[in-house]
């Protein structure tokens, strides 16, 4: 089983990268690794200006019997990978669904939602159905405490969910909304949405 891969990015796809693990100028093997949009952006920056473009991804690998493929999912650190494993341990949530959840919810917000049993936030932000959201909370509530994925102090999931809903209503995607709100410096709901719209207008 592959635990991690380290190398340079040969190609950026829509939802994946091709990672070359060989030495520069000596060829190598290219691995197709599925990543979230957030990680894709991080890798695009890393590939151009850090360590000569060398990156390291922790890997979850799985045989996809339905499509006849051997899929690899990549994460920049071990805690993100462990959170992915916890999500896929929930009955009814597979790797693709788990990656979709992590694409639109910050790990610390997911942890806060589980600890606070905030199923409404999970439904609004990730698009999970009510039964799946409740099941995720029930099965993970006693498993996420030890994860070191950010300070939960001051997180307002209610405001976060409302801000995302406002941007979705204006036609933006889940990922665009989350990405803009992460950079928004406003304190009130209106200020955050207004600042997010300004940022989105520049892209």
TrEMBL record:
Family of the protein in this entry: Belongs to the RuvA family.
How does this protein assemble? Answer: Homotetramer. Forms an RuvA(8)-RuvB(12)-Holliday junction (HJ) complex. HJ DNA is sandwiched between 2 RuvA tetramers; dsDNA enters through RuvA and exits via RuvB. An RuvB hexamer assembles on each DNA strand where it exits the tetramer. Each RuvB hexamer is contacted by two RuvA subunits (via domain III) on 2 adjacent RuvB subunits; this complex drives branch migration. In the full resolvosome a probable DNA-RuvA(4)-RuvB(12)-RuvC(2) complex forms which resolves the HJ.
Q: What is known of its domains?
A: Has three domains with a flexible linker between the domains II and III and assumes an 'L' shape. Domain III is highly mobile and contacts RuvB.
Give the Gene Ontology MF terms in alphabetical order: ATP binding; four-way junction DNA binding; four-way junction helicase activity
* SUPFAM superfamilies named in the record: DNA helicase RuvA subunit, C-terminal domain, Nucleic acid-binding proteins, RuvA domain 2-like
| UniProt KW DNA-binding keyword | yes
What is this protein's name?
Holliday junction branch migration complex subunit RuvA
Q: Which InterPro entries match?
A: DNA_helicase_Holl-junc_RuvA_I (IPR013849), Hlx-hairpin-Hlx_DNA-bd_motif (IPR003583), NA-bd_OB-fold (IPR012340), RuvA (IPR000085), RuvA_2-like (IPR010994), RuvA_C (IPR011114), RuvA_C_sf (IPR036267)
Q: Which domain of life is it from?
A: Bacteria
Q: Which GO terms describe its biological process?
A: DNA recombination; DNA repair
Q: Which function does this protein serve?
A: The RuvA-RuvB-RuvC complex processes Holliday junction (HJ) DNA during genetic recombination and DNA repair, while the RuvA-RuvB complex plays an important role in the rescue of blocked DNA replication forks via replication fork reversal (RFR). RuvA specifically binds to HJ cruciform DNA, conferring on it an open structure. The RuvB hexamer acts as an ATP-dependent pump, pulling dsDNA into and through the RuvAB complex. HJ branch migration allows RuvC to scan DNA until it finds its consensus sequence, where it cleaves and resolves the cruciform DNA.
Q: Where is the organism placed in the taxonomic lineage, from the top?
A: Bacteria, Candidatus Yanofskyibacteriota
For this record, an example GO cellular component is: Holliday junction helicase complex
According to the entry, every stretch annotated as the Helix-hairpin-helix DNA-binding motif class domain falls at 85-104, 120-139
Provide the residue span(s) of the region labelled Domain III: 162-203
Location in the cell? Cytoplasm
Keywords carried by this UniProt record? Cytoplasm, DNA damage, DNA recombination, DNA repair, DNA-binding
